Amino acid sequence: MNGWMQHLIVAPILIPLVAGAFLLFFDERQRVLKAMVSVLSCLALAAVAITLLRFSGAEAGFQGVYLLGNWPAPFGIVLVVDRLSALMLVLASVLSIPALVFSLARWHAAGPHFHTLFQLLMMGLNGAFLTGDLFNLFVFFEVMLAASYGLLMHGSGSMRVKAGLHYIAVNLVAALCFLIGVSTIYGSVGTLNMADLALRIGELDPDRRMLLEAGASVLGVAFLIKAGMWPLNFWLPGAYSAATAPVAGVFAIMSKVGVYVILRLSLLVFGEGESAGHGLNVLLYGGMATILFGTIGVLASQALGRLASYSVLVSSGTLLAVLGLGNGEVTAGALFYLVSSTLTISAFFMLIELVERGQDAGASVLAVTMEAYGDADEEEPETEVGVTMPATIAVLGTCFAAIGILLSGLPPLSGFVAKFVMLSGMIGAGVQSGGTIPAPVWWIVALMILSGLAALISMTRAGIRTFWASMEGTVPRVLVMEMAPVLVLLALTLMLAVKAGPAMAYMEETVRALQHPAGYIEAVSGARRAGEAAATTTAGEGD
Amino acid sequence: MEFVLALAIGIMTGSGVWLILRPRTYQVIIGLSLMSYAVNLFIFGVGGVKSNAAPLLGEGVDIAALADPVPQSLVLTAIVIGFATTALFLVVLLAARGLTGTDHVDGREQPK
């Protein structure tokens, strides 16, 4: 990876930034142009992300390091592509295209600047995945959040504004926690570069180490709010179920950003040495509480939107609890689960909108309240252009069943593979190490199976109510353009199940690289500046 | 100097936390602002409190006599971002007030 290819690393940030800024020049009447630019940008992002993934998967221990402004590593800001960040980039861009296409049918016209905000959200997401600097991470988090505030309230209506108010307040407090954490870490270690931080943590004296751990814990709170760990997650169901369908579809990955950062930092900084395993118990037990909370929420939900939001929590909780075990094999399964559940939930949010379109406003109790709070304003019939989906109910029902299968973790789709890998990793590790399996592992196993059962029960209940016991029998008018994104996402989960072998191999390689951060650290500190002689070559690829 | 700074951070954080737990949106935004001031001061403080020290490296200047420039640049970024998000929150607050007709954070008054 050299020459101009090197600059691909910064492209996932630049493409959406330029596209988003460019779109500001046109007013809302030029919808077709705006949509085209936006879709092209997302396609380009996907192409870049897949290229980066192929590069980072090509050789073991590959690191792509990009020095912003050509400043040497610990002083300037670095962007780093390794297997994990490449995976997340691909997931984000693959998710963005269906959501965007879905929005083109009607939602993008529901308010101004949808496409600009969407592009900026992508920029924030990609930046957060790429950056190797803690403060820069804060900046990209804020870019992502600021765009998400706008997107959440896209379409307006008092329900969304109210949910947005809570969402913004919670996230502003989280941002303050983030700042306190970052500055405490800087105060104790004297660096903000993640690789440099990992390097210096071994040499810290006990006082400073304590301060660092305190800072990291406060920082962790900020990410756990984002990831939705109980008891920091009461904002999430309201916000996600109030958002418009395509927006909720991309929000599915936003809660995974918190999980990503926790995974990255805990293995990089607290992987080995005296502070090893700092905070893992919080993840373990907090994650379990989150699964329980999410499961109860899934069972109690009447409206489909809330059901999907609580499924986000179940998925976050499963990930956090499993990461809390600190077991490599299980973590690889968790990465697979992350991809699978993000695709599922994104498809679910979009499907819900299509299904509920056919329902009478009085079909469920919550729909009544939604009506009372003015959500119905957005449902104004617009002149829709496009091909209507044939055999609508059959397709919708099949998709609904597929999502139910994915959420509950039944074969043959990828949800089953993900859960199976995690469960077999957890139980297998105990069996191999001498027959005893620690109690927390049993708890996680029980909770994971229970949450699957709960998802099955509530999906069955909701499916019967929606598709079989529907009183009015009106068939929703669904465009191909809206159905296709859901089908594509579900096809991806099917592909993930079929290609589970290569995918798992990639995940295992990713986790192996994460568990031995020496390669990452070496690549960042050894990155050469542009124009510098290639005298001291290390694993760094700075060209 | 350290004591005054610590006291200021403490008072502002305390007031801020109390205010964001209040039911009116205006109280929440003032609370958030106070907390962000406190956090900004805190960031400023982690570099070590020094008075009359420049953060600029020059010929023959002892490094120990310099103020740490990194927290200063961090605080600048934090102020800008904090300002922008607070302004955004203010707009949402006004929109919520207009749509729900009340300044309660839940969009409706508590039943008496």
Topology:
The complex is a heterodimer of chains A (543) and B (112).
Chain A: H1 11-23, H2 31-58, E1 64-67, E2 78-81, H3 83-105, H4 114-130, H5 134-152, H6 158-189, H7 194-200, H8 206-227, H9 235-242, H10 245-269, H11 280-300, H12 304-325, H13 328-357, H14 365-372, H15 392-408, H16 414-432, H17 439-468, H18 480-498, H19 500-515, H20 518-525
Antiparallel strand pairs in A: 1-2
Helix pairs in contact in A: 1-2, 1-4, 2-3, 2-4, 3-4, 3-10, 3-13, 3-18, 4-5, 4-10, 5-6, 6-8, 6-9, 7-20, 8-10, 9-12, 10-12, 10-13, 11-12, 11-17, 12-13, 12-17, 13-15, 13-16, 13-18, 13-19, 15-17, 15-18, 16-17, 16-18
Chain B: H1 2-20, H2 25-46, H3 69-100
Helix pairs in contact in B: 1-2, 2-3
How would you summarize this macromolecular structure in one to three sentences?
The complex is a heterodimer of chains A (543) and B (112). By secondary structure, chain A is mostly helical.
What keywords describe this structure?
heterodimer; A: 543 residues; mainly alpha; 20 helices; 2 strands; globular; disordered C terminus; B: 112 residues; Helix Hairpins; membrane (chain A); Monovalent cation/H+ antiporter subunit D (chain A); transmembrane helix (chain A)
* Mean residue pLDDT of chain A: 84
Give the tally of structural domains of chain B.
1
Helix and strand element order of chain B = HHH
Main β-sheet description of chain B: none
Largest interface in this structure: A-B, 31 and 32 residues
Q: Which spans of chain B of ≥5 residues are poorly predicted at pLDDT below 50?
A: none
Q: Widest sheet of chain A: strand order?
A: 1-2
**Residues in helices of chain B, as a percent range:** 55-70%
Q: Globular, elongated, flat, extended or rod-shaped: what is the shape of chain B?
A: elongated
- DSSP summary, beta strand count of chain B: 0
